Amino acid sequence: MSTRLALRIQERFDRLTRSEQKLAGVILDRPGLIETHTATELAGIADVSKATAARFFRALGYTDFEEVKLQAREERNRTQPYSYSVASHGTTVLGRTIGEHLDLELANITRTFEEMSPDALRQAARLIADAPRLWFLGLGTDAWLARYGLALFSRLRPNVHAVGITGGAVAEDLALMGPRDVMIVLAQGPQPREMKAILSYARTTRASIISLTDQGNLAQAKRFSDLALRCHISSYGLIPSYTTLVSTLRLLAIAHVGLVGETALQRASLIDEINEELDILG
Predict the structure, then answer these.
(1) Which residue of 41, 72, 201, 272 has the fewest C-beta atoms within 10 A of its own C-beta?
(2) What does DSSP say about strands 92-94 and 84-86: parallel, antiparallel, or unpaired?
(3) At what angle do helices 50-59 and 65-78 cross, to 10 degrees?
């Protein structure tokens, strides 16, 4: 939780209403909730109304809850939260305990899939099934996600590509993109400047764009994409978490198989048979 938020609560606690004090107590007792939960969820945990939560954060001097979350993230990223800790059985662990790591990853996964619309998942599966070509785009440190998507979907359908994966030939790949193609964009954290230009050009080809993105890239994703699926990626600041992006890619693959059925299963089976034969011949 933000240190400044805790100080504001302590300074104004006596002036808060009884309901607001209940919410303040929850936040002070469980500071990690600020980054992993919405204001509505915090209100539910404290057993107060959404209106109380909104008044509470305004009383502390914030415009809205998003400003609180942004402040907490900024403070976390400016500090080094990692230290040696000792588990109950005596094992020394660098960073957070296993339990804290698990809690945060589960919170990310839970929020990501609770917020995902079943209609959006069905629409994504339909776009992928109908696409003449399926493309993956991940720039910088997200490039490995594009390779994972390429490997995953190549087992399930033909004509799957990753933009710029061959010697950085981005323009050559974009020149192949056409109407009804689908490009799945994977964006976590700060993105290279060329991301916006690539998305802008892809729109001119009349390809459909599905973005798997974090909160920081959501606005741009919504501007350029037919579908923007938000993935929660809260972490402790030093090492990014890709758990929800990988899991969402797998969910898209499962939805695709569910839609096209035997066609995908036959292709995967054929690839397994070819790999087995190559192993024998090798």
Answers:
(1) 272
(2) antiparallel
(3) 60
Here the tokens at position 62 are 């914030």
Q: How far apart are CA 234 and CA 245, in angstroms?
A: 12
Strands 160-162 and 208-213, by their bridges, are: unpaired
- The residue among 170, 157, 128, 159 whose CA lies nearest residue 262 is 157
**What pTM was estimated for this model as a whole?**
0.67
Q: 122: part of which helix (H) or strand (E)?
A: helix 118-130
Q: How far apart are CA 250 and CA 231, in angstroms?
A: 13
Q: Which two tokens stand for residue 224?
A: 């350029």
pLDDT digits (tens, 9 = 90+) for 45-78: 999 999 999 999 999 988 889 888 888 877 666 5
Mean pLDDT for all residues in the chain: 87
